[in-house]
Amino acid sequence: MTDAVARTPARVRDEPHVRPLGEAGGARDGHPLAAVLPLLRDTLVAIADEATHVMVVTDAQGHVLWREGRRDVPLRAGWSGPAGDLGTGTAPPAPPPLRIAPDRPLVRAQHSWTCAACPIHDPDTGAVIGAVDLTGPVRTVHPTTLALVTAAARLAEGHLAARLAVGQERLLARNLTHLSRLRDEPGALLAPCGRVLAAQPQGWLPPRVALPAVGDRVPLGEAGEGVLERLPEGWLLRLRRPAGPPPPVLALSFLGTDRPVARLDGRPVPLTPRHAEVLALLVLHPAGLSAAALATLLHGDPGRTAAVRAEVHRLRTVLDPGVLRGRPYRLRARVDADFATVRGALAAGAVRDAARDYRGALLPRSGAPGVREERDLLAAALRRAVLDSRDADAMWALAATPDGTGDVELALRLLRALPARDPRRPALTGRLTVPGR
User: Which of 121, 271, 407, 418 could be disulfide-bonded to 275 (CB atoms 3.0-4.6 Å)?
Assistant: First the structure.
Protein backbone atom coordinates (compact mmCIF):
# COMPACT_ATOMS: atom_id res chain seq x y z
CA MET A 1 0.00 0.00 0.00
CA THR A 2 1.41 3.44 -0.85
CA ASP A 3 0.93 6.75 0.89
CA ALA A 4 -1.42 8.76 -1.33
CA VAL A 5 -2.37 12.38 -0.80
CA ALA A 6 -6.09 13.01 -1.33
CA ARG A 7 -6.92 15.06 -4.45
CA THR A 8 -10.61 15.83 -4.07
CA PRO A 9 -11.59 19.06 -5.82
CA ALA A 10 -14.61 20.45 -4.02
CA ARG A 11 -15.80 23.66 -2.49
CA VAL A 12 -14.75 24.43 1.04
CA ARG A 13 -17.53 24.08 3.61
CA ASP A 14 -17.79 26.23 6.70
CA GLU A 15 -19.50 23.47 8.72
CA PRO A 16 -19.66 19.71 8.28
CA HIS A 17 -22.92 17.81 7.85
CA VAL A 18 -23.79 15.98 11.07
CA ARG A 19 -26.10 12.97 11.35
CA PRO A 20 -28.72 13.02 14.10
CA LEU A 21 -27.91 11.11 17.28
CA GLY A 22 -30.65 8.53 16.81
CA GLU A 23 -29.56 7.81 13.25
CA ALA A 24 -25.93 7.36 14.29
CA GLY A 25 -26.87 5.01 17.10
CA GLY A 26 -28.90 2.91 14.70
CA ALA A 27 -25.96 2.72 12.30
CA ARG A 28 -23.71 1.42 15.07
CA ASP A 29 -26.15 -1.26 16.20
CA GLY A 30 -25.11 -4.54 14.65
CA HIS A 31 -22.36 -3.03 12.48
CA PRO A 32 -19.59 -5.62 11.91
CA LEU A 33 -16.90 -3.16 13.03
CA ALA A 34 -18.41 -3.12 16.53
CA ALA A 35 -16.67 -6.46 17.07
CA VAL A 36 -13.22 -4.94 16.43
CA LEU A 37 -13.70 -1.60 18.19
CA PRO A 38 -11.90 -2.81 21.37
CA LEU A 39 -8.94 -3.96 19.25
CA LEU A 40 -8.76 -0.64 17.40
CA ARG A 41 -9.09 1.22 20.68
CA ASP A 42 -6.24 -0.75 22.29
CA THR A 43 -4.05 -0.24 19.22
CA LEU A 44 -4.60 3.42 18.43
CA VAL A 45 -6.30 5.45 21.15
CA ALA A 46 -3.32 5.72 23.53
CA ILE A 47 -1.12 6.90 20.65
CA ALA A 48 -3.85 9.27 19.49
CA ASP A 49 -4.11 10.82 22.96
CA GLU A 50 -0.35 11.31 23.19
CA ALA A 51 -0.22 13.02 19.78
CA THR A 52 -3.35 15.11 20.41
CA HIS A 53 -5.13 13.06 17.74
CA VAL A 54 -8.50 11.35 17.65
CA MET A 55 -9.38 7.92 16.31
CA VAL A 56 -12.39 7.86 13.98
CA VAL A 57 -14.17 4.71 12.76
CA THR A 58 -16.57 5.14 9.83
CA ASP A 59 -18.95 2.95 7.88
CA ALA A 60 -18.53 2.19 4.16
CA GLN A 61 -20.23 5.49 3.22
CA GLY A 62 -17.84 7.56 5.31
CA HIS A 63 -20.30 8.27 8.14
CA VAL A 64 -18.65 8.44 11.54
CA LEU A 65 -19.67 5.58 13.83
CA TRP A 66 -17.22 6.10 16.72
CA ARG A 67 -14.75 8.79 17.76
CA GLU A 68 -12.27 8.05 20.52
CA GLY A 69 -9.40 10.08 22.01
CA ARG A 70 -9.01 13.41 23.72
CA ARG A 71 -12.39 15.03 24.12
CA ASP A 72 -11.26 18.45 22.97
CA VAL A 73 -9.88 17.22 19.63
CA PRO A 74 -13.20 16.87 17.74
CA LEU A 75 -14.24 20.39 18.67
CA ARG A 76 -10.95 21.83 17.51
CA ALA A 77 -11.25 19.91 14.26
CA GLY A 78 -14.65 21.42 13.52
CA TRP A 79 -16.87 18.44 14.37
CA SER A 80 -20.01 18.88 16.41
CA GLY A 81 -22.50 16.35 17.70
CA PRO A 82 -21.90 12.67 18.49
CA ALA A 83 -21.60 11.43 14.92
CA GLY A 84 -21.61 12.81 11.42
CA ASP A 85 -19.88 12.71 8.05
CA LEU A 86 -16.14 12.31 8.15
CA GLY A 87 -14.79 15.69 9.17
CA THR A 88 -12.49 15.88 6.17
CA GLY A 89 -15.48 15.88 3.83
CA THR A 90 -13.90 13.28 1.56
CA ALA A 91 -15.68 10.63 -0.48
CA PRO A 92 -16.38 7.17 1.01
CA PRO A 93 -13.28 5.12 1.85
CA ALA A 94 -11.29 3.99 -1.19
CA PRO A 95 -9.35 0.70 -1.31
CA PRO A 96 -5.82 2.06 -0.62
CA PRO A 97 -4.88 3.76 2.67
CA LEU A 98 -4.52 7.51 2.31
CA ARG A 99 -3.10 10.55 4.08
CA ILE A 100 -4.95 13.82 3.66
CA ALA A 101 -2.60 16.81 3.50
CA PRO A 102 -3.40 19.89 5.61
CA ASP A 103 -4.38 21.97 2.57
CA ARG A 104 -6.99 19.45 1.43
CA PRO A 105 -9.77 19.33 4.09
CA LEU A 106 -13.00 20.86 2.95
CA VAL A 107 -13.88 22.61 6.20
CA ARG A 108 -11.96 25.85 6.88
CA ALA A 109 -11.59 25.01 10.57
CA GLN A 110 -9.61 21.90 9.64
CA HIS A 111 -6.90 23.49 7.47
CA SER A 112 -4.27 23.03 10.17
CA TRP A 113 -5.14 19.36 10.55
CA THR A 114 -4.22 16.13 8.78
CA CYS A 115 -5.55 12.59 8.85
CA ALA A 116 -4.41 9.08 7.92
CA ALA A 117 -7.12 6.56 7.04
CA CYS A 118 -7.27 2.94 5.92
CA PRO A 119 -10.32 0.94 4.77
CA ILE A 120 -11.37 -2.28 6.49
CA HIS A 121 -12.67 -5.10 4.29
CA ASP A 122 -15.18 -7.86 4.86
CA PRO A 123 -13.07 -11.06 5.09
CA ASP A 124 -15.70 -13.06 3.22
CA THR A 125 -16.70 -10.80 0.31
CA GLY A 126 -13.74 -8.43 0.17
CA ALA A 127 -16.07 -5.41 0.16
CA VAL A 128 -15.16 -2.30 2.14
CA ILE A 129 -17.25 -2.20 5.32
CA GLY A 130 -15.67 0.87 6.89
CA ALA A 131 -12.44 2.68 7.68
CA VAL A 132 -10.28 3.69 10.63
CA ASP A 133 -8.72 7.13 10.76
CA LEU A 134 -6.32 9.11 12.96
CA THR A 135 -6.89 12.86 12.74
CA GLY A 136 -5.04 15.64 14.50
CA PRO A 137 -2.91 18.77 14.18
CA VAL A 138 -0.11 18.87 11.67
CA ARG A 139 2.47 19.81 14.32
CA THR A 140 2.12 16.46 16.15
CA VAL A 141 1.75 14.09 13.19
CA HIS A 142 4.37 11.31 12.95
CA PRO A 143 5.75 9.91 9.65
CA THR A 144 4.68 6.39 10.67
CA THR A 145 1.07 7.31 11.40
CA LEU A 146 -0.26 5.90 8.12
CA ALA A 147 1.65 2.64 8.61
CA LEU A 148 0.25 2.34 12.14
CA VAL A 149 -3.33 2.92 10.96
CA THR A 150 -2.85 0.40 8.14
CA ALA A 151 -1.53 -2.21 10.59
CA ALA A 152 -4.52 -1.63 12.87
CA ALA A 153 -6.90 -2.11 9.92
CA ARG A 154 -5.18 -5.36 8.99
CA LEU A 155 -5.41 -6.59 12.58
CA ALA A 156 -9.11 -5.81 12.53
CA GLU A 157 -9.56 -7.77 9.29
CA GLY A 158 -7.70 -10.72 10.80
CA HIS A 159 -9.96 -10.63 13.85
CA LEU A 160 -13.06 -10.53 11.64
CA ALA A 161 -11.72 -13.46 9.59
CA ALA A 162 -11.18 -15.53 12.75
CA ARG A 163 -14.72 -14.76 13.94
CA LEU A 164 -16.04 -15.74 10.51
CA ALA A 165 -14.18 -19.07 10.60
CA VAL A 166 -15.49 -19.89 14.09
CA GLY A 167 -19.04 -19.04 13.05
CA GLN A 168 -18.83 -21.20 9.95
CA GLU A 169 -17.44 -24.16 11.92
CA ARG A 170 -20.29 -23.75 14.41
CA LEU A 171 -22.82 -23.67 11.56
CA LEU A 172 -21.37 -26.89 10.13
CA ALA A 173 -21.33 -28.69 13.47
CA ARG A 174 -24.93 -27.80 14.27
CA ASN A 175 -26.47 -28.31 10.84
CA LEU A 176 -24.72 -31.19 9.07
CA THR A 177 -27.65 -33.41 10.04
CA HIS A 178 -29.87 -31.37 7.70
CA LEU A 179 -27.53 -32.19 4.83
CA SER A 180 -27.27 -35.87 5.70
CA ARG A 181 -31.07 -36.18 5.76
CA LEU A 182 -31.12 -35.40 2.04
CA ARG A 183 -29.45 -38.80 1.58
CA ASP A 184 -28.49 -39.05 -2.10
CA GLU A 185 -30.18 -35.78 -3.10
CA PRO A 186 -27.81 -32.95 -4.10
CA GLY A 187 -27.66 -30.24 -1.46
CA ALA A 188 -25.43 -27.81 0.40
CA LEU A 189 -25.03 -25.84 3.61
CA LEU A 190 -24.56 -22.14 2.93
CA ALA A 191 -23.27 -19.32 5.12
CA PRO A 192 -25.63 -16.33 5.45
CA CYS A 193 -23.78 -14.61 2.58
CA GLY A 194 -24.15 -17.62 0.25
CA ARG A 195 -20.68 -19.17 0.64
CA VAL A 196 -20.82 -22.97 0.21
CA LEU A 197 -19.54 -24.59 3.43
CA ALA A 198 -20.42 -28.22 2.64
CA ALA A 199 -21.99 -29.87 -0.39
CA GLN A 200 -23.05 -33.30 -1.54
CA PRO A 201 -21.80 -34.30 -3.97
CA GLN A 202 -18.65 -32.25 -3.71
CA GLY A 203 -18.02 -29.83 -6.53
CA TRP A 204 -21.55 -29.59 -7.93
CA LEU A 205 -21.80 -25.93 -6.87
CA PRO A 206 -19.49 -22.93 -7.27
CA PRO A 207 -17.78 -21.61 -4.10
CA ARG A 208 -20.56 -19.06 -3.60
CA VAL A 209 -24.28 -19.03 -4.48
CA ALA A 210 -25.98 -15.74 -5.33
CA LEU A 211 -28.88 -15.53 -2.87
CA PRO A 212 -32.13 -14.02 -4.16
CA ALA A 213 -33.36 -10.69 -2.80
CA VAL A 214 -36.82 -12.23 -2.28
CA GLY A 215 -38.21 -15.76 -2.35
CA ASP A 216 -36.54 -19.11 -1.85
CA ARG A 217 -35.67 -20.14 -5.43
CA VAL A 218 -32.09 -19.98 -6.72
CA PRO A 219 -31.12 -20.46 -10.39
CA LEU A 220 -28.21 -22.91 -10.60
CA GLY A 221 -27.47 -22.88 -14.33
CA GLU A 222 -27.25 -26.32 -15.90
CA ALA A 223 -27.92 -27.98 -12.53
CA GLY A 224 -31.46 -26.59 -12.54
CA GLU A 225 -33.10 -24.67 -9.72
CA GLY A 226 -32.34 -24.75 -6.02
CA VAL A 227 -34.67 -24.25 -3.07
CA LEU A 228 -33.48 -22.47 0.09
CA GLU A 229 -34.50 -23.46 3.59
CA ARG A 230 -33.68 -21.00 6.37
CA LEU A 231 -31.53 -22.38 9.21
CA PRO A 232 -30.77 -20.57 12.49
CA GLU A 233 -27.24 -19.70 11.26
CA GLY A 234 -27.38 -20.00 7.49
CA TRP A 235 -29.16 -21.85 4.68
CA LEU A 236 -29.85 -25.37 3.48
CA LEU A 237 -29.92 -25.54 -0.31
CA ARG A 238 -31.44 -28.53 -2.09
CA LEU A 239 -31.94 -29.16 -5.76
CA ARG A 240 -35.53 -28.73 -6.87
CA ARG A 241 -36.66 -31.79 -8.74
CA PRO A 242 -38.78 -31.28 -11.87
CA ALA A 243 -42.39 -32.35 -11.75
CA GLY A 244 -43.05 -35.95 -12.72
CA PRO A 245 -43.10 -39.41 -11.20
CA PRO A 246 -40.75 -39.84 -8.24
CA PRO A 247 -37.53 -41.76 -8.87
CA PRO A 248 -37.47 -45.42 -7.79
CA VAL A 249 -36.03 -46.40 -4.42
CA LEU A 250 -32.90 -48.53 -4.58
CA ALA A 251 -32.19 -50.21 -1.23
CA LEU A 252 -28.74 -51.75 -0.76
CA SER A 253 -27.53 -53.95 2.10
CA PHE A 254 -23.78 -54.30 1.55
CA LEU A 255 -22.33 -54.28 5.08
CA GLY A 256 -20.96 -57.40 6.76
CA THR A 257 -22.30 -59.91 4.25
CA ASP A 258 -20.93 -62.17 1.54
CA ARG A 259 -24.31 -62.00 -0.21
CA PRO A 260 -25.09 -58.33 -0.92
CA VAL A 261 -28.78 -57.57 -1.35
CA ALA A 262 -30.41 -54.98 -3.61
CA ARG A 263 -34.09 -54.12 -3.91
CA LEU A 264 -35.64 -51.72 -6.41
CA ASP A 265 -38.99 -50.42 -5.15
CA GLY A 266 -39.15 -53.57 -3.01
CA ARG A 267 -38.36 -55.96 -5.87
CA PRO A 268 -35.23 -58.12 -5.36
CA VAL A 269 -32.49 -57.41 -7.88
CA PRO A 270 -30.13 -60.31 -8.69
CA LEU A 271 -26.54 -59.15 -8.25
CA THR A 272 -23.15 -60.53 -9.15
CA PRO A 273 -20.23 -59.45 -6.94
CA ARG A 274 -19.08 -57.12 -9.72
CA HIS A 275 -22.54 -55.56 -10.01
CA ALA A 276 -22.49 -54.88 -6.27
CA GLU A 277 -19.11 -53.18 -6.60
CA VAL A 278 -20.38 -51.00 -9.45
CA LEU A 279 -23.43 -49.94 -7.45
CA ALA A 280 -21.37 -49.20 -4.33
CA LEU A 281 -18.97 -47.00 -6.29
CA LEU A 282 -21.79 -45.10 -7.99
CA VAL A 283 -23.43 -44.46 -4.61
CA LEU A 284 -20.11 -43.14 -3.30
CA HIS A 285 -19.81 -40.84 -6.34
CA PRO A 286 -23.35 -39.46 -6.88
CA ALA A 287 -22.14 -36.87 -9.40
CA GLY A 288 -21.16 -39.72 -11.71
CA LEU A 289 -18.06 -41.52 -13.00
CA SER A 290 -16.55 -41.74 -16.45
CA ALA A 291 -15.72 -45.15 -17.87
CA ALA A 292 -12.01 -44.56 -17.17
CA ALA A 293 -12.67 -43.45 -13.59
CA LEU A 294 -14.90 -46.46 -12.93
CA ALA A 295 -12.26 -48.75 -14.49
CA THR A 296 -9.64 -47.31 -12.12
CA LEU A 297 -11.84 -47.89 -9.07
CA LEU A 298 -12.84 -51.40 -10.16
CA HIS A 299 -9.60 -52.71 -11.67
CA GLY A 300 -6.90 -50.21 -10.80
CA ASP A 301 -6.45 -49.62 -14.54
CA PRO A 302 -8.11 -46.69 -16.38
CA GLY A 303 -7.58 -48.47 -19.67
CA ARG A 304 -10.06 -51.26 -18.97
CA THR A 305 -13.05 -49.28 -20.20
CA ALA A 306 -14.31 -52.08 -22.44
CA ALA A 307 -14.73 -54.38 -19.43
CA VAL A 308 -16.50 -51.61 -17.54
CA ARG A 309 -18.96 -50.94 -20.38
CA ALA A 310 -19.77 -54.64 -20.58
CA GLU A 311 -20.46 -54.87 -16.82
CA VAL A 312 -22.60 -51.75 -16.88
CA HIS A 313 -24.61 -53.12 -19.81
CA ARG A 314 -25.30 -56.36 -17.91
CA LEU A 315 -26.27 -54.43 -14.76
CA ARG A 316 -28.74 -52.31 -16.73
CA THR A 317 -30.59 -55.42 -17.83
CA VAL A 318 -31.53 -56.29 -14.22
CA LEU A 319 -32.52 -52.74 -13.27
CA ASP A 320 -35.50 -50.74 -14.48
CA PRO A 321 -34.87 -48.62 -17.60
CA GLY A 322 -33.32 -45.25 -16.81
CA VAL A 323 -32.01 -46.16 -13.35
CA LEU A 324 -28.39 -46.38 -14.50
CA ARG A 325 -27.54 -43.40 -16.70
CA GLY A 326 -24.46 -42.84 -18.82
CA ARG A 327 -22.03 -40.04 -19.71
CA PRO A 328 -21.09 -40.11 -16.88
CA TYR A 329 -22.32 -43.31 -15.27
CA ARG A 330 -24.68 -42.37 -12.43
CA LEU A 331 -27.79 -43.60 -10.65
CA ARG A 332 -31.19 -42.02 -11.09
CA ALA A 333 -32.84 -43.39 -7.97
CA ARG A 334 -33.37 -42.53 -4.36
CA VAL A 335 -30.70 -44.66 -2.77
CA ASP A 336 -31.09 -46.19 0.69
CA ALA A 337 -27.70 -47.84 1.23
CA ASP A 338 -26.62 -49.10 4.66
CA PHE A 339 -23.02 -47.95 4.21
CA ALA A 340 -24.16 -44.49 3.09
CA THR A 341 -26.34 -44.28 6.20
CA VAL A 342 -23.33 -45.00 8.42
CA ARG A 343 -21.23 -42.42 6.59
CA GLY A 344 -23.97 -39.81 7.01
CA ALA A 345 -24.38 -40.53 10.72
CA LEU A 346 -20.63 -40.17 11.27
CA ALA A 347 -20.56 -36.88 9.37
CA ALA A 348 -23.40 -35.60 11.54
CA GLY A 349 -21.66 -36.67 14.76
CA ALA A 350 -24.33 -39.30 15.54
CA VAL A 351 -21.76 -41.90 16.64
CA ARG A 352 -24.17 -44.21 18.45
CA ASP A 353 -26.48 -44.39 15.43
CA ALA A 354 -23.52 -45.06 13.15
CA ALA A 355 -22.34 -47.93 15.37
CA ARG A 356 -25.81 -49.46 15.54
CA ASP A 357 -26.23 -49.32 11.75
CA TYR A 358 -22.79 -50.79 11.05
CA ARG A 359 -23.10 -54.55 10.60
CA GLY A 360 -19.57 -55.15 9.37
CA ALA A 361 -17.19 -54.36 6.55
CA LEU A 362 -18.40 -53.05 3.19
CA LEU A 363 -18.50 -55.92 0.65
CA PRO A 364 -15.89 -57.85 2.67
CA ARG A 365 -14.86 -60.11 -0.23
CA SER A 366 -14.38 -57.32 -2.76
CA GLY A 367 -10.89 -56.67 -4.10
CA ALA A 368 -11.85 -53.61 -6.15
CA PRO A 369 -9.43 -50.79 -5.18
CA GLY A 370 -12.18 -48.20 -4.76
CA VAL A 371 -14.31 -50.48 -2.58
CA ARG A 372 -11.34 -51.66 -0.56
CA GLU A 373 -10.29 -48.08 0.19
CA GLU A 374 -13.80 -47.06 1.27
CA ARG A 375 -14.12 -50.22 3.38
CA ASP A 376 -10.92 -49.45 5.29
CA LEU A 377 -11.72 -45.75 5.69
CA LEU A 378 -15.24 -46.38 6.97
CA ALA A 379 -14.11 -49.02 9.48
CA ALA A 380 -11.24 -46.87 10.77
CA ALA A 381 -13.35 -43.71 11.01
CA LEU A 382 -16.13 -45.51 12.89
CA ARG A 383 -13.74 -47.19 15.32
CA ARG A 384 -11.96 -43.92 16.09
CA ALA A 385 -15.23 -42.05 16.58
CA VAL A 386 -16.63 -44.76 18.86
CA LEU A 387 -13.51 -44.91 21.03
CA ASP A 388 -13.35 -41.13 21.29
CA SER A 389 -17.04 -40.91 22.21
CA ARG A 390 -16.66 -43.10 25.35
CA ASP A 391 -20.29 -44.05 24.75
CA ALA A 392 -20.89 -47.50 26.22
CA ASP A 393 -23.85 -48.24 23.92
CA ALA A 394 -21.86 -47.24 20.83
CA MET A 395 -18.90 -49.37 21.92
CA TRP A 396 -21.17 -52.34 22.65
CA ALA A 397 -22.78 -52.07 19.20
CA LEU A 398 -19.39 -52.02 17.49
CA ALA A 399 -18.09 -54.87 19.66
CA ALA A 400 -20.98 -57.03 18.41
CA THR A 401 -19.86 -56.72 14.76
CA PRO A 402 -17.30 -59.00 13.05
CA ASP A 403 -14.86 -56.08 13.14
CA GLY A 404 -15.28 -55.60 16.89
CA THR A 405 -15.26 -59.14 18.26
CA GLY A 406 -11.48 -59.40 18.32
CA ASP A 407 -10.75 -55.78 19.22
CA VAL A 408 -9.04 -55.98 22.61
CA GLU A 409 -8.68 -52.21 23.05
CA LEU A 410 -12.39 -51.75 22.35
CA ALA A 411 -13.29 -54.45 24.93
CA LEU A 412 -11.06 -52.89 27.59
CA ARG A 413 -12.48 -49.42 27.00
CA LEU A 414 -16.00 -50.83 27.16
CA LEU A 415 -15.29 -52.61 30.45
CA ARG A 416 -14.14 -49.32 31.96
CA ALA A 417 -17.26 -47.55 30.69
CA LEU A 418 -19.83 -50.13 31.91
CA PRO A 419 -21.25 -50.00 35.46
CA ALA A 420 -20.00 -52.70 37.85
CA ARG A 421 -23.26 -54.70 37.70
CA ASP A 422 -23.95 -54.29 34.00
CA PRO A 423 -25.04 -57.70 32.59
CA ARG A 424 -22.81 -57.20 29.56
CA ARG A 425 -19.58 -57.32 31.57
CA PRO A 426 -19.28 -61.16 31.83
CA ALA A 427 -19.34 -61.58 28.05
CA LEU A 428 -16.58 -59.02 27.64
CA THR A 429 -14.51 -60.54 30.44
CA GLY A 430 -14.85 -63.91 28.74
CA ARG A 431 -13.49 -62.48 25.49
CA LEU A 432 -10.45 -61.08 27.23
CA THR A 433 -9.66 -64.32 29.09
CA VAL A 434 -9.78 -66.62 26.05
CA PRO A 435 -6.41 -68.45 25.82
CA GLY A 436 -4.04 -66.85 23.36
CA ARG A 437 -5.31 -63.28 23.92
Answer: 271
